[in-house]
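--- STAGE predict ---
source: upstream dedup step, 1 unique chain passed
mode: sequence only
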Amino acid sequence: MAGHYLYGGKRFECGDRVTEIVAGLPTLTTILTLGPTSEIAQNFAGWSAPHQGKTQTFERFPFDHPGFVLFSSGTTGKPKCITHSAAGVMLKVGEEQHFQFGLTKEDRVFYFSTCGWMMWNWLLMALGTGATIVVFDGSPTYPHAGRLFEIAAEERLTFLGLSAKLLDVARKESTNPSQEYDLSHLDYIASTGSVLSPEGFDFVYERVKSDVRLVSMTGGTDICGCFVAAVPGASIYRGELQGPCLGMATDVFGADGISAGVDEKGELVCTVPFPSKPLGFWGDSDNAKYRASYFEGFPGVWTHGDFAAKTVHGGFILFGRSDATLNSRGVRIGTAEIYRVVESFDDILESMAVSQDWEDDTRVVLFVVLKDGSVLTDDLIGEIKLRLRTQASPRHVPDLVLSAPELPRTKSNKLVELAVTDIVNGRVVRNVDALANPDSLEWFRTLLWK
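--- STAGE serialize ---
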């Protein structure tokens, strides 16, 4: 354990947290305390010396033996304790890295991730391709918004992975990596964690690298892998995910449980089993919570919780999480459709839209976080509504627009729309412990929701 860490140029103490964790582990026998990286490097030889020269022994386990537990981010409620088999995940991720992305020993791979996000596991497994992996401890936007592209140049990365939100931050900060860094060696940029907007595609091809393969992926901690990712040799279309991974019967179902047609919105599903299907949830002995999470929507079919549509190119478009979709006058709307338009304003850093029960109906409330010095004027509200009406549809226009100081997000930097939805509808927030900034909820509670 570490007694402190540095992030964004600041020091954060975690001694109290360490004490709390240790107190909750009655069978703990040893604590290894880590200092700064330089100390770890100096002491590594001492730690490993007693084990050198010893014969390593291995034990054979069945294919579906539990390997590790991953925790969901908490965007949809209390985090799930997802138990994975090591062999199943290695087979699934190995397929993606070998065949979808074609990684080899010549590649240098980096995916910005916390150790609690599944992309950390994904990154480590790239070692199985023979590739070199790069790890980074720190803020992705400190001391500037182009920090990850700077790392890509310094480490001569061939594969750079990051969240859609970080690409959006770099775009809004007017970062121009193609002019600032040598990215000639960069073959792939991968994006996941949330929906990558068409403007995000524009940013990459206009200001990062014009011939890079930009891959917007979807999958999750639930499967420690992807449903949709890179398709070698296929074209990349603005705002679209290329296509299903090998062995993944990915589809979109309508409410009737029938495969939807092209451009018809519905639930992202997988209709056949796959290697990294989790063994279950830790502590869920009868698998009741597990079945309720994925198989209640359509019996025998994995329902992932993404609102999506198939495209004429064989790809997919995502519109946000199904449980965060808005009901506007009887029509389901994906929040990503609203965010794409709203966050095109220079004055707006990010936004969140939620549904609120209001006067025997449902209304859409839009919260925006403004840049320092910007003000949410009536003129700006009017322009927001006009753009949504013309660039999306009249149903996408919010009934109420408010300026918020901060939006709640998980520790893996995902917005938590359900927390705000609970507050505006007078319900108890179900997942406070999963938030990186739980204090952000206080502002929403101070509003007079009736």
